[in-house]
Request: fold
Amino acid sequence: MAVYLVTGAAGFIGSWLTQALVERGETVRALDNFSTGKRENLAPLMDCIDLHETDLRDAAAVARACKGVDVIFHEGAIPSVPLSVKDPRTSHTANIDGTFNLLEGARSAGVKRVVYAASSSAYGNKNPLPQKETMLPGPLSPYAVQKLTGELYLRSFWEVYGLETVALRYFNIFGPRQAPDSPYSGVMAKFARQMLRREQPTINGDGEQSRDFTYIENVVQANMKAASAPAEKVAGRVFNCACGKPFTLNQTYKMLAELTGYKNPPRYGPPREGDIKHSYADISAAREAFGYEPAVDFAEGLRRTVDWYREQHEAEISRELLAGARS
Ligand code: UD2
Reply:
């Protein structure tokens, strides 16, 4: 049996991967510094994982976490385009130094394969649609540069040291457990929560920007398949991980409003710095290399996501009522 390490294991995507591995009966080490990851995401799995409370910037601790590991899912990062625009240094160190530390740790420990959470932001604005992995990248924001740098390091570690690496370019992943409550939260989580709380969401710009929103279960599938595919098909390569269908923010807003019963129109604000206009993936490379096939489409993903945020919202109201009754 292989031993797996998941970085960013307490985060949205990391916790889904950790859970999937535990459900398969695998041996799992989970690394997180809990800067944005939540303990509650790992709570049901605590008896089944080896938790390393470690910052990716701590090279020695990361190297220790890599010992005895066969496969790494590297999800740990400081995400968010706008956060990287506001404070590029913090995300630079976490995303670039952190990834480098992990690759160095993996190389010295003799890890077989690293599967990396890359980002569709690498394409930027200049590429025609749909975006293919063969296109030249055009990163705009510091975050996009950082994620792309990670990809290049992965390829180098494959070419130079023979560490099998696979980069999955995530296209706007959404689903249950995505944190909704920070100004830097992903739009789907943020809007779902705001609409359920009957707070008016703000669309940055005219809302005609589009994203290839991808439900979390598809991402789990892509990672599992990328981890077990033959090296000759995947090692050193980059693959889009998406649904293969774009939706504008205005369309997304409408669908979310219907699902949440929210009646008001959005507020329109200025466009966001570093934002890209359209994002839409060609997913044929992943399909051909390791049989990736998105199983949950956008509409079904949205339904499941809103159901989850509704449960969270109802639980929050009950807690507030209980607290009110006690005081
Ligand atoms: C980028 C990447 C994504 C992932 C993510 C990590 C692209 C195309 N995608 O997502 O793959 O790496 O970064 O953070 O680069 N918005 C509003 N109102 C809000 C919040 C957001 O209008 O309150 C807009 C935002 O301006 C953007 C869209 O919603 O046009 C999506 O924003 P996001 O922050 O959810 O994700 P994005 O596209 O930066």
The first helix runs from residue 12 to 23. The two ends are 53 Å apart (CA to CA). DSSP finds twelve helices and 13 strands in the chain. The chain has a mean pLDDT of 97.
